[in-house]
Specification:
With 242 residues, the protein is an all-alpha fold. Helix content is 69%, strand content 0%. InterPro entries: ARM-type_fold, DNA_alkylation.
Length: 242
């Protein structure tokens, strides 16, 4: 089954796309995706392959996650998402634990963004009532990790909470990551804050204004967070005159 999956991926691969994807996901020397290898398969095609092999056993998923090929890791994560969303309580727990164990294999922003909220976020949301301490502990561990992708996963995972009207985890992790040095974290935090603002503008503005966070947070983070603000108000935030 695994060999068939790999063949199916290669059937829809395009060499010219591989070069473009390598540049887009910063796979060059010294860049955050250094060493990543691309076949040249776009996400819609990867989803089709993942759907076809959604019952792939963990032992084969593990081999895909350990692959140096980006699209093979992506398909592995998309399969885990399928299994989690269609599984019962027992399977969801197994998928979640397997995902956490292999989270460092989601080592580019698309791999995180296409899986973190749907597995990590969804499971921690379920734990919010039954095991709140366990939820907070894992969020704290990931958001303080030295691994860039674990930190990004911690904030992106809160998207699931936001969609269900719960903003506290997002704001807590945003506070933790506000001094982070990496641009990919700035973008992710700003993105999640913007999502909070879409649902509750007052909550977003309270967060920005409290302790004058809007003056001290990275500019990219702020720009993402206030992207949908009316232009006059947006300028006030950017120029620090709120």
């Amino acid at each position: 089954m695994l060999s068939k999956l790999k063949k199916d991926l290669r059937k829809v691969a395009k060499k010219e796309k591989a070069k473009a994807l390598s540049r887009f996901f910063k796979a060059g020397r010294g860049q955050y995706g250094e060493g990543d290898i691309f076949l040249g398969v776009m996400v819609p095609q990867s989803r089709i392959v993942a759907k076809k092999y959604e019952n792939l056993p963990f032992v084969h998923i593990q081999k895909l996650l350990d692959s140096p090929i980006h699209e093979e890791r992506l398909v592995a994560l998309l399969i885990l998402v399928e299994q989690y969303q269609k599984g019962d309580t027992t399977l969801r727990k197994k998928v979640f634990e397997f995902y956490i164990k292999n989270l460092k294999c989601a080592n580019n922003w698309d791999l995180v963004d296409l899986s973190a909220d749907k597995i990590l976020g969804a499971q921690l949301f379920r734990q919010m009532v039954s095991c709140p301490k366990k939820m907070r502990t894992l969020f704290s561990k990931l958001s303080s990790s030295s691994n860039l992708w674990e930190r990004r996963a911690s904030i992106v995972a809160t998207s699931y909470f936001i969609k269900h009207g719960e903003f506290v985890p997002t704001l807590d992790i945003a506070e933790r990551l506000i001094a982070d040095k990496h641009d990919l974290i700035h973008k992710a935090v700003g993105w999640m804050l913007r999502e909070v603002g879409k649902r509750d503008l007052g909550t977003l503005e309270s967060f920005l204004l409290e302790k004058s966070r809007y003056k001290t947070m990275p500019r990219t983070m702020l720009r993402y967070a206030i992207e949908r603000f009316p232009e006059p108000k947006r300028k006030k935030y950017l120029f620090g005159t709120m």
